[in-house]
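worker-03 picked up job from queue 'complexes'. Input manifest follows; two sequence lines, order preserved.
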Amino acid sequence: MKQEVKLKCHKIMGGYGEGEALVSKEPICFYLTDPKTGRVREKGHQLEGKSVAGKVLVFSSGKASSVVQIDGLFKLASEKMAPQAMIVRDVETVLVVSAVIAKVPLVDKLEKDPFAMISTGDFVKVDANEGIVSIRKKA
Amino acid sequence: MHLTKDEERILEGESGEGMQKAMELLVAIGDALDAPRLIEVSRAHAASSGQEGDLYFVELLAKGGATCKVPTTTNPVYDMECFDKLFKISRQESDVARRVKESYKQIGAMLSWCCTPYITENIPMYGENVSFSESSATPFVNSVIGARTNREAAQSALAAGVIGKTPEYGLYFDENRKGTMLVKVAATLKDEFDYSLLGQHVGKQIRYGIPVFTGISRRPTTEDLINLCAMLNTSAAVSMLHMPGITVEAPSVEAAFGDNHPQDKITVTERELEQTQEELQTGSGKIDLVQFGCPHYTLKQVVDVARQLKGKKIHKDVAFWVCTSATALFLAKRMGYVDIIEKAGGHIVADTCIDMTCWNRFKDKTGMTDSPKCAYYRRFKDVIVARSSDCIKAAIKGEWK
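worker-03 finished. Artifact:
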């Protein structure tokens, strides 16, 4: 088994979540996911057709109006289809509110570039309370 | 973020669970965005939406005993008395919207149910720190009035309204209010429709930042600026703009940019505006619905519509709706214009957003609107976007060619 890498990060919404990483360099609008399956249904999106449910979502930033963004993540969480945790590179107000309302652990300021450190399929633990992200690369 | 003793006590729940949840949200935002402290705000606007995420938070706060500390207005949901009867909407279907309305009442918000409260009931002054969500509201109060707010969500604005404070970051600081992008307008902007197209086009080019518009030949009206702000902050995340010689914090181009060097320059000609309008179209021919009022029509716009409809008849197959504020509706009624619109076969309604379940009966239909934002959020299938006078002509004919 490959060694686990531990990195410091900055807590935004507390909690703990672990799972397979799903990485998107493109911004994400949670309203454009299907709340019943967690699948991204935004046409042409890097993650189109992939499900965010149960994953550790690693992405560049949120996008779209506050109303739809928050409602989108809230609906995913209500259907138990939200990510286990989220690691974001650029945070703004609406994404913070979305994570708090939907109670999804969210961190930023990973001490190294998240896109260089994490690939889709890696196993990632996010301990937002302690500010630690642990990464085990997939075999 | 540093908290005072009083603020910490609220966070620990000494002022009740509602206040605690509001404070938790403000602290999460402040910590995330490196705010040094909370600062007082004098008013707020919550972009309530009648959707589930919105309902969850306002109920949480209201049931937890929170009350708005500073004047906090609300966004439109829909006029139930009007639509439930007319469209036979079931109680189950209207449940979320009804509970949202009850909760905002319980929490002591000012029930404007209007997305442009900054020209009616909730008008900040220059330099005032406020917390305003809603696409047109955030850039309008920052740019046109010179009050200060970040790009808030409904929930963070409501939390600020309840606590009377917000984290100090972003646009509360002078240095973050300077232009980042130069937009040279080489087109003649005739009315608010052209400003909508300008906002839509520029938003798609820049995605974020503070654009500085030059080359504006005619002084814009309130309606022009409302629509420019709405579209910029829908097609992009734009919390502020400058128009040298017109908006308050930009006496000149140099002042608008301060120490910033514009990263980019965009030139907009009539061709780009025409293309933008073209790109929005998905339908043509027979129309089923004309929808005005996204953002809410001002009294002036209502009067313009009524004057064009005077003595005319809207085609029997076209549903014609104007959404406006309660204040404008009241005055339009007094002035006899509601009568004119209704005699022509149209409807005018307050408290109502175009993005609500009450419009679902049009989901397979073709709608026409003067608002690119309405086209984006539309609750109907195909859309035609055109100047309001063209929409009115099409409503009378029953088709657009």
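worker-03 released lock.
Chain B has three domains: 5-174, 178-278, 281-400.
Chain B has 16 helices and 15 strands.
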